[in-house]
Amino acid sequence: MNLSSLLYNNRYKTLLLACVLSITGQRAQAASAADSLQWTSLGVYDTWEHSPFMTGRLKGNVVVEQEAIAFQRSRYGSNTYGLRVDLKQPFELTPELKYVHVRILKPKAGRTMLIGLGKRRDRAGQSPLTEQFWVYSTQTVEPGQWTDAVFPVKGAGGIDIHSLVVVPDCESTHNLKSDFMAHVGTMEVNDNPTSGTLSTSYPLSFSPEGATVPAAEGISTVGAGKSVVKLPEASNGQQPRYTALLDEALDATPGEHLAFTINGQPAGEGSVSIDLDRDGRFSAKEQFNGTVDLPSSLPYGYYRVRFHHGLAVADTRLNVHPQTVTVNQEGRNGEVVLSDGQALSALHVAFGTALAVKAVPSHGFTCSGVRVRCGYNLTGDQLLHGTPQYVDHVIPRSAFKANGVGVIPAELVRGDIVIEGLFVSK
Predict the structure, then answer these.
(1) CA angle 254, 260, 264 (to 5 degrees)
(2) Residue partners of 244: CB distance under 8 A and separation at least 6
């Protein structure tokens, strides 16, 4: 096909985006229509308003192939230049996280981003091409192999996403000597945060599907020091044999002597494992008899910890944190500052304390809320062997006073923070 042409026709307009699972051309099975996002048209998009692809000086190259869509990454676009996919059926941004899965194949290393274009339902005149979110993939898209890139998205509700922009190379083009082709396959939106191409980490010695234990023999709580994580209550006298509570965490600091508990009692011999080197496995050296002296040089971050109690197993996270965390802000068309006006630029605040802030929109804009990212390595992969390293939380405008002052709750100040003001035109 001629890559200088933008090709799509009626034959392909209802095609489910299928992908090749290997570079050798192995045929993949198309995902079901119930889970996959269908498209009506394809194009290119760039958030840089002076991009030659947005002004009309250049045309992007997109080709529909038999099992994927080929997109030419141009060195003349910005770092957010990507493939625009206009959806047959929009989906809503809700306060609850959804996960957009996109199969991507590219020859070059670099961050991958997804941009959502859409409009608010309460703004009849708003363009459906208004940028509503920008989010990096939660894991690295390795060059030369198909990857199920996962993008967590959410909003204040009442926002319909009409188009998705897949940015396969969200990096500066200054060192890009030549264009290259990237391929996009299946696209799905669901509630599963795990990539379909991740290798199995933290294996169990049994199949957890349907496995239960009597509630009296299960795990109700796990603890470390003064912090406790509570497991879901048993149902009908039975509890799942394996439970993963990866949105929760126990707190610790480097060098701390930790005493673990299970069901409020001291953890027994060989009952606790911590993946201290974060390699996705629990080695024999990472198994402890209820207590552990954490290395004083242990890097800050979230670590997978596993508890054993009879036949029952529970996984959660250990938040190895500093005494103070760093707070920054970012965004467009306004800024977020402390309630007293102090700038949020590498500001140090005590771990676990609430933070009073103020949203200050630029002229002609208003604040629809703020997005708070909290954790570690905030610009890197969200999942490390399936263990979340940071979370994104949207605080709606309704939680702020009329003067723009609101509170970042203490439960979100548990790692480094980036606060993004969500400013929209009036």
Answers:
(1) 145
(2) 314, 315, 316
Q: Residue-wise over 275-306: b if at least 16 C-beta within 10 A, else e?
A: bbebebebeeebbbebebebeeebebbbbbbb
Q: By CB neighbour count within 10 A (0-12 exposed, 13-18 middle, 19+ buried), where does 224 fall?
A: buried
Q: Do residues 71 and 168 make contact, with C-beta atoms less than 8 angstroms apart?
A: yes
What does the DSSP 8-state code read for residue 122?
T
Cβ-based neighbour number of residue 13 at 10 Å: 14
Euclidean distance between CA atoms 423 and 408, whole angstroms: 17
Of 202, 253, 271, 259, the residue nearest 228 (C-alpha): 259
Tell me: the pLDDT tens digits for 299-318? Answer: 999 999 999 999 999 999 99
Residues 62-114: tens digit of each pLDDT: 999 877 899 999 999 999 999 999 999 999 998 888 899 999 999 998 889 99
Q: Which residues of 22-60 are buried (b: 16+ CB within 10 A; e: fewer)?
A: eeeeeebeebeeeebbebeebbbbbbeeebbbbeeeeeb
Please give the angle made by the CA atoms of 75, 81 and 86, to the nearest 5 degrees.
140
Phi, psi of 397 (to 5 degrees): -60, -30
Q: Which of 273, 247, 248 is nearest to 260 (CA)?
A: 273
